[in-house]
Hints:
This is Exodeoxyribonuclease III. This protein is α+β, with helices and mostly antiparallel strands. The protein has a single domain, classed as Deoxyribonuclease I, Chain A (4-Layer Sandwich), CATH 3.60.10.10. Helices cover about 25% and strands about 25% of the residues. The protein is built from seven helices and twelve strands. The longest helix is centred in the middle third of the chain and has 26 residues, at about 115-140. The protein starts with a strand and ends with a strand.
Amino acid sequence: MSTVNVNGLRAAAKKDPGFVSWLSATEADVVCVQETRAEASQLPQEVVAPQGWHVVLVPAQAKGRAGVAVYSRVEPDAVRVGFGEVEFEGSGRYVEVDLGAVTVASLYLPSGEVGTPRQEEKERFMEAFLPYLVRRRKEVEGQGRDLVVCGDWNIAHTEADLRNWRGNRKSAGFLPQEREWLGRVFDEAGYVDVVRALHPDQEGPYSWWSYRGRAFDNDTGWRIDYQVCTPGLAVRAESARVERAAEHGARWSDHAPVTVRYRA
């Protein structure tokens, strides 16, 4: 299973190598995508209906913003858009699909910006989303199923998740209240950060690097893309990796895919 913020699906699809070539080569059975920023009518056939894949595309009502999607090898049993909060129903930030005994969600949590309405929006989203995660875990586990929320959470949880953490203590994505909130997802709601569970002592592995300067070349990155799942699925995670491009010129997004292999 993979998750990746494509930073605009149209642009990522036009690059060579790009999203299309990556998707055709991946061994993942499910791919969660964020920041698609496109309607289905704006995308080529090999993106909106690639051979061998079922695609659930959820654009934002605000054109050119946000947008999430799920690509799966098998057709979903059910699809749910949003998490019941009226303000974010048309935001293109959350979708769930049922695939057998596992519900897979693609999440694009707002990025925020300190001292602006964007940060206020992010905080409202978090305030509404945590109770949903608590409730949803009870529901799926009560059905004998599991849930994994893949996506761009836009928060680096600990100092190990951000190379330049000292210089970003007052930056959106590493604010104390954001980090505390993500900690509650793990400690109170009982979800598992799969990559960190498999790599407990590693700095990173980072999944986002700014296009500015030499951030990618120096690996001055952030780990903000997660696969967060219920414990029953977490124990089946065998390996996790960030598919970091070999060089700057081979990047097709400012994020890299985060891929986890789970036992069947």
